[in-house]
Amino acid sequence: MSSLWIPAIVIPLVLAELGGWATWLSVRVVRYAARRLNQPEASIRYAEEFTATINDIPGQLTKLAAAIGILAATPILRRVLATASEIPMSQAIAPQNERGHDARPCMEGSNGNAKRQ
Fold it and tell me: How far apart are the first and last CA of the chain?
């Protein structure tokens, strides 16, 4: 029974100490993730966006978890950015009608919802 009080004291102390470092580390992690995009102009922009996202998240350890999630999604974002840079801008933007709405034709789905082609 006497050994139960040790984790009850040590665990909160460790979490408090980690919490202090978590915000600093989460910013470093998202900056690293942005550098891994392999596109200098996109890396700068995404570093700012990722950092802003992390700063908006409440809680210190939650920020670190979100930063790790962003780092895990970096390979997917890298592929998307590489594919997007290969598509001409005239094809990347959907045509719009005079009201500014998407002008692509709609197809009615089997459940009655309209789908864009």
Answer: 67
